[in-house]
Structures are given as C-alpha cells and as structure tokens.
Amino acid sequence: MSASLLLPDSAAAHRSRDLLAEFPQLSDLPGMPQARMLVEYIIGRRLRELDVSGRDAAGAFIDAENTADVPHRIIVVDDAKGIQTALLRPLAEVAVHLDRIDDSRIAASIADVPEIPDLGQVESAHSAAGRAASAGERNPETWAVINAPKATNALAESIAALQAHVSTIIVIGRSDSMSRAVNKELARGFGRVDVSPGVGKHRMIIGSRPLSAPSLPSFPKRGVITHPSVGDLEVRAHGACFSGVRSDEGSTLLLDALIETLPGSATAANPIAAGDDGTAADSAAVSKPESILDLGCGNGWLLTAAMRATGALRGTGVDVSKAAVASARATAEANGVDVDIVLGDAADHEDSDVAALGEFDLIVLNPPFHQGTTIETDTAEALMATAASHLAPGGQVITVFNTHLRYRDRLEGIIGPSEQLARNKKFTVISSRR
C-alpha cells in the first residue's frame, strides 16, 4: 500500500509535512499514521489535489468555492490518544466525543478542545452548527471523524446521532478491521459512500451527500434476559455498551454462584469443599447483603439481577463508559430497581467520584482483560484494589474471570482469603474477603 494519499512533490504534501513537523512529540505514537492520513486528506481536498474518495483528482472538476475552507468544523469521535485532535486543530475548529472517561482525560492532556458529552446533543458543541441545527438546516462545513470501533452497534449509533448535523462522516481504522458493515451503516444516512486507498495498514470510508430521509437505527436497543432465579429482566443497551442486550457468560456464572451462597439455597445449606477442578462450591452461606456495588456495570443486567435476587436495599454501579452508564440506568429503570449509576474510572484511585462511594457488603466484579486487541491485566488488578477499599467488614467480593488468567492468587494478595465458588470450561468465580 502507498505511504501517502498525496504525490510526494505536490503542494498539499509539502503543506502536510510542514504541519506535522510542528508536532515532533507525536511522531512515534501509535495513532500517528491515521492522524497523518486525515491531515493529508483534508489539505488535499482543500487544494483540489484529491477527490472525495481520497484519490488523485487528476484534472477532474472540483468546485473551488465549495472546497477551499471545508471543513470549517470537525467532530472527532473516540480519538483515544488525542493525536488526531491535536493535528486537526490547526486546520479547523475541533470538538471531541469520547465514550470512555479515561480516554477523555488522556486526550485532554494533548489537545485542549471542547468535549461533547453526548452525541445526541451535537448542536451545542459549536455555536454556528447549533444555530443551523436549531433552524432545521444542515451546516455543510461540519464534518465528523469516527474511529472505527469493534462493535457495529457503536458505529451505527454514532452515525445516527451525527447524520443530521454534518455533511460528511469519515470512518477511519485499520484496513483489516474495516468490514462491509461500515459501508452499510454509512449508506443508511448518506447517498455516497467512498473507500479511500490504503495508506500503510489504514484506510478511510467516507459518507457524503446526506439523505433527507435516512433509515437510521434507534438506540438504546431493547431485549429481555431470563434467569431461572430472578425471572425476566428488561435490558437496554446503547451501541458502545459491552455485550449489548445480552447477558455475557461470565456474569451469568457469577450470578449463579452468588445465588448459591444465599441463605436457603441447596449449596448454602450443605456446602462441599472443592479444589481447583471446580466440581463444587467451597463457600458456606452468607447473610443477604444490604448493599451491592458493581464495578464495571456494563448494561446493568448483573446489578439489577443481583438486587432482585438478594433484596439488597442499596445498589451502585460504576463504569468508565458513558454508553454503559446510560444503558445501566435505563435497564434499572425499566425493571423498577432503584440504584445509583456512576460515571467513573474504578481503575483510577484518584477518581474522586469512585472514592466517595463508601462501603458495600457485596461487590461484584467482571474485570476486562483486553485493551483494544491487547491482553492486559493491570486494569483488573486496579479494580481488585478498588474493590478492597470499598468492602465493608464481613463483606465479600465475587469476581469472575477467564480461567486461564488465574486471578485467585492476586485476589488473595489484594483483597484477602479467597475461595472458588464455581468454574466451567471458560470461567472461574472466586469469593474474597478481607
């Protein structure tokens, strides 16, 4: 694949290199190739060297009046490192939206630009764009850049929220992760969809010519999860929420194990010692908790089910994702369960919102072990430490994890005495006490 969208000696190439030279501190960071591609595309479009697809215009007619200052505003979605935002800022007025607040803090340290808390309120991000939106007019000078997510629903919701407010949406990502689903979602809202040439391992898919009557999906999605001990639970999920409206297998095993520890369950009445083969639970019954904390609450299903199963009086969920927080709140409300859902980074011990949560009798934990496509366990250990700091005397932390990660020793060291409650071919559930 080409190393650039632009011809080496073109005016746009020289201008792009001059801009990039102003940011030597970013040159070796992982997100730089995609950010450079965006810079080349915008400058190439403005100088009429590139057509809408990012290919050499080669003498094709391009309306100079409609390209010279386009885009005037750019909304950048999920630029986790803030590199795109920093490089685009000299070219246009930029606002950002990041689903994860930890990403938001990183991006803010690199580029000081306005943040859009909710893509459903895009018009408030730019005064001119806001006036156009409130007047029912689309602002042709506003573009959006969406960093391709793993989940199609996350992309679909971003496109649906932005389509009425922008003239162009650029989805950018690694070529091997840009499936036909991207084209399909853009085609729901735009009359033209172009695929750019690949640059290195990256490419763009570009939606333009917005449709006046788009066929966009609505969010949050709705579903029902049935569990034999708690019955039917309505679930709501926004696009970027982990597992959508489904119950993930690990959380289901955790809930099963929790219920088995409660007074009146068969296992609680006659506990059996078990080794690491996981043939039976090895924990005696505990009293029903009066308070529950779910660190990483996702769509809120596990917290809502645990509240219903235990009859706890107080429940709190925490998640670093705005989509998850909105989903969990909607799920709890749909089931008439009164809980607090907090947007916070439970892996960051300096997060004041998390530090102020207080103590809980029961903490449930299904920690992530992927950062993008990379396996990492630092986040899980940080969540264990947060759980330990919020555990009330006599309480327990119930953790589920992929068995191959072997977290039991870490739980012992960070929280306290730990025992296995359940295990299947994929997951292990451990109860830990101080």
Automatic annotation (TrEMBL):
One protein family per Pfam: MTS
Residue span(s) of domain Methyltransferase small: 288-430
Gene3D superfamilies: Vaccinia Virus protein VP39
MF (Gene Ontology): 16S rRNA (guanine(1207)-N(2))-methyltransferase activity
Keywords: Cytoplasm, Methyltransferase, rRNA processing, Transferase
E.C. number(s) listed in UniProt: 2.1.1.172
InterPro entries according to UniProt: DNA_methylase_N6_adenine_CS (IPR002052), RsmC/RlmG (IPR046977), SAM-dependent_MTases_sf (IPR029063), Small_mtfrase_dom (IPR007848)
Family matches, as PROSITE patterns: N6_MTASE
This protein's name: 16S rRNA (Guanine1207-N2)-methyltransferase
Naturally occurring in which organism (per UniProt): Brevibacterium epidermidis
